[in-house]
């Protein structure tokens, strides 16, 4: 049977498969970082296809590359130094956590559609499987002079992947609704109140029951007579965030209270048309970020602490890696390649997701 694939193509693939896969995975991450925020600003079929393709390919390529690293480790003993001039066992182990970092994805997108949030359990299972695969690659390379920077990068990768899984968990409509439900409140005990009132009346004790009427009708004139006020940009963001916390209940089929309805009516009747739509724009941005980005998972005390830990680990890993190659003065080309990858791959870790962008 004739060989369909030429020998030159096979040799080229064997030489460049790992480096090409890592660069392609990095390219997909950059596409998501640059293009994902544009999805909420403008409607474009071509842009959606690009984001959709990059979103699906990113996980596949990163998982494939982790397997490729494990395969190259197994085949390394049968290859000479001239065949793999830049790939050493410890260097392959150092590359593996970067793929775990890529699987965590950028802050700008965690889900392409609402249905993706419902699959957070699948992503949790994927985190466990990929962590086992990366740990296998690292353990197989031990003892290694790069075990410190590799361990630090592994910690960053675990945090990033866990952030994505946590963001999907919060974006799941069921969990989103459960977080909004207040503790049950039965309200006033009217039966007991009536019984006490009747007892006092029978005992000829002065007692009076008063009913206070609160104007919550649809056509309250007070809602329309409020003076119109202009808002600064900061006040628009504050108003959008406040009403996002109110109206997000409607997404999961919860009802607004009369108080929330009346306050929102008075707020918007007191704004100009332009500023009212600006507040709505901010509110919709918060809704988008809550379901499709890492905003909810990162914005909080735990999220800030984990981001600080990631930044410290990245800087420490880069310093230890650079110091190791500077001390040995060997394999300079590999040092330049991995140092460049260290700067570019963790870019999503160092960025705190913004809650609203105009």
How does this model look, in words?
The chain is built from 16 helices and no strands. The protein has helices spanning 7-35, 45-75, 89-104, 114-117, 120-141, 147-171, 173-180, 190-202, 221-224, 233-247, 258-269, 273-292, 295-298, 301-328, 332-344, 347-350. Residues 329-358 have low confidence and may be disordered.
* Shape annotation: elongated
Largest sheet: number of strands, sense, barrel closure: none
Helix and strand element order: HHHHHHHHHHHHHHHH
- Which ranges are low-confidence, i.e. pLDDT below 50, for 5 or more consecutive residues? 329-358
The SS-based structural class is mainly alpha
Helix content: 55-70%
Number of helices: 16
Distance between the termini: 61 Å
How many strands?
0
Nearest-integer average pLDDT:
78
**What share of residues are in beta strands?**
under 5%
The whole-angstrom Rg is 29 Å
Produce a short descriptive summary.
The protein is built from 16 helices and no strands. By secondary structure, the chain is mostly helical. Helix 3 runs antiparallel to helix 5 and helix 10 crosses helix 12.
């Amino acid at each position: 049977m004739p060989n369909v694939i030429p020998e030159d193509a096979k040799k080229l693939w064997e030489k460049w498969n790992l480096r090409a896969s890592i660069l392609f995975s990095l390219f997909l991450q950059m596409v998501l970082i640059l293009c994902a925020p544009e999805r909420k600003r403008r409607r474009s079929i071509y842009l959606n296809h690009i984001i959709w393709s990059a979103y699906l390919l990113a996980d596949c390529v990163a998982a494939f590359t982790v397997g490729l690293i494990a395969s190259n480790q197994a085949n390394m003993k049968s290859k000479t130094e001239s065949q793999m001039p830049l790939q050493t066992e410890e260097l392959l182990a150092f590359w593996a956590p970067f793929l775990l970092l890529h699987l965590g994805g950028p802050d700008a997108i965690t889900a392409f559609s609402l249905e993706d949030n419902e699959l957070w359990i699948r992503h949790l299972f994927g985190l466990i499987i990929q962590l086992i695969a990366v740990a296998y690659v690292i353990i197989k390379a031990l003892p290694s002079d790069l075990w410190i920077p590799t361990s630090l990068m592994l910690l960053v990768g675990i945090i990033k992947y866990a952030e994505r899984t946590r963001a999907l968990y919060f974006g799941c409509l069921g969990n989103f609704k459960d977080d909004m439900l207040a503790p049950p409140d039965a309200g006033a005990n009217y039966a007991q109140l009536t019984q006490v009132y009747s007892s006092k009346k029978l005992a000829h004790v002065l007692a009076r029951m008063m009913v206070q009427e609160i104007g919550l009708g649809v056509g309250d004139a007070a809602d329309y007579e409020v003076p119109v006020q202009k808002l600064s940009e900061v006040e628009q963001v504050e108003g959008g965030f406040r009403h996002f916390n109110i109206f997000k209940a409607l997404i999961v089929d919860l009802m607004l209270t009369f108080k929330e309805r009346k306050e929102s009516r008075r707020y918007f009747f007191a704004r100009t048309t332009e500023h009212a739509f600006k507040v709505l724009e901010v509110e919709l941005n918060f809704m988008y970020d809550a379901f499709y980005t890492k905003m909810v998972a990162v914005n909080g005390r735990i999220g800030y602490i984990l981001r600080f830990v990631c930044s410290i680990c990245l800087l420490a890993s880069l310093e230890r890696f650079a110091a190791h190659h500077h001390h040995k003065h060997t394999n300079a080309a590999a040092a330049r390649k991995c140092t460049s990858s260290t700067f570019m791959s963790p870019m999503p870790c160092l960025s705190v997701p913004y809650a609203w962008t105009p």
